[in-house]
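Appendix B.2, paired examples.
Example (i):
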Amino acid sequence: MPRLFPLKPKGPPKPPKTAQAKQDSATLITLSCPFPSCGHSFTVAAAEAKKIKLCPNCIRPLKKPGRSSSRSGELAPVGSLIKPKLLKQIKGPTALQRRLIDTAADQQEPENPLYMHTVFCQTSLPYRDPGDDVREWRRTNGNLVLKVIAGEVVDPNTGEDVPLNLPFGAKARTILMHMNQRALVTGRAAVEMEDSLTRFVSRVLQLDPHGRNMRMVKEQLARLAASTMRLAILKDGRTLMVNSQIVTAFEIWFPKDDRQRVLWPTIIQFSSEYFESLQAHAVPLDEAHISALCHSAMALDIYAWLAQRLHRIPPGKPITISWIALHNQFGQGYNPDRIDKFRQVFRVALKEVLTVYRSARVEEGARQRARVYLSGGRPIVREPALVGLTLHNSPPPVRKLLK
C-alpha cells in the first residue's frame, strides 16, 4: 500500500564526538551500593554513570561518584524517585475527591431535597462576577429565555440608592435552591431567611457560618433578592411567562458599621406568578449531591440539567447533544472558536456529577476514524467533528416528590 505521508527530511548531521566525550565513553568506573545488606558492585561507562540512580540489585539509591554521604545507607526522598503522577496516586484522593466518593457511597433517599425551577435547570446565572459595569444578564436555550437585571436598594439612613451587582457563582445557585425549598415546604411565598441560612451554610455548603463565609453568602442573597429575573417560554409563535419577577418584596437589614456593611434580606416574598410556577415545575435535587458539587457552578448546572432531562427521555430512544449545543448552554466565557478548551473543563465537571449521580446514563460519543485525502499530490488529514453526549432514559436523583 503506498504511503500517504512524505518521509520527513533528515536533519543536519550530528557533530562528531569531542575528545572528552570519546574519553568518557571509553572510561569505565565502578559503582557500588551503599547499603551493607546489598553490597552489589558493577562497572559502567563514565558517560552512563550519571544516568544510573538506583542499584539494579536492591532498587535503592546509589552513592554518586565524587559524592560522600554523611550517613551510610541514607534514604532518599520519595519524591526524587517516583514520578509526580504516581506520587499523587500514592498519596490518595484529595479532600474534594473524598467528599465525592463518600457522597457516591451513600445512596439513601434524601429526606429534605432541594428544589430548582425547571427554567433554571436549562438556563443559568453567571459563573463568575461580571463586574460593576454589567447590569444585565441574558441566557437563551432553545425556547427558554432568562434575563437578570441587577437591582438597587434604598438606604433608610440617607435615602440614597445603593446599587447591587448581579448574582453569580455556586453560592447564588445553592441559595436559590434553599429559598425554593423553604417556600415549598412551608407552602408560603414569604420565606424567612435569618434562622435557616446559618444551618444551610453549615450543612450544605460545609462552611463555617461566621465571618467572611457568611458575608459572601449574604451578599449573594441580597443580589438575588434585589435583582429582577424575567422568565420567558417561547411556544408556537407566542411568548409565555414574560415579566414574571421572582422576588417582589424583601426586608433588608442595614448594618450600622459602614466599614463592614453587608446588605442582606431577612424576609423574602416570592411573586405569586413565580411561586405558582415553582409549585408546578419544581425539580427535586438531592441535598447531599448539591453539597458535594457546591464548589463548581458548572457542575451544579450540569447536575440540575440532567436531573430535569434524563427521566423525560423515552426508554430505548436516546438523544444526542452536540458539543456546539453544550457550549451554547454551559460555555459562558469560553471562546466558541476553541470548543476544545470548553470540552476539557466540561468533562471534568461531568465526571464529578456522574460520580454522585450514579444512576445517570450518559455516554460520550466515540471519536470517528480520521480520513486522508490527496490534494495536489499532498495528503490532507480530516477528522470528523466529535459527536457530543448521548443521553439515555435514567431515573431522577430524587424520586420522592413533595406532597
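Example (ii):
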Amino acid sequence: MKLTVDEKKLYQLVKKALSEVMEENLKKLKLGLIPYVQNEEMKEIGEIFGTPEKYKKQEFIKQDL
C-alpha cells in the first residue's frame, strides 16, 4: 500500500501537531510554576484582598494558562 501526501499538507500537519504538543507542555509548565499556598497564607490573602464578590463590578481580562 502506497500513501502519497502533498509536501505542503504534511508540513501543516506536523506544524499543527507540534504546536499542540508545545501548547500542552507550556500549560503544564505554567501550572507547575504556581507556588503552593498554605492555609495561613490563603487566610492572610483573604484578609487583605477580600473575596471575589468584592470585585464583581470591576472588569478583568481573562488570561489563558
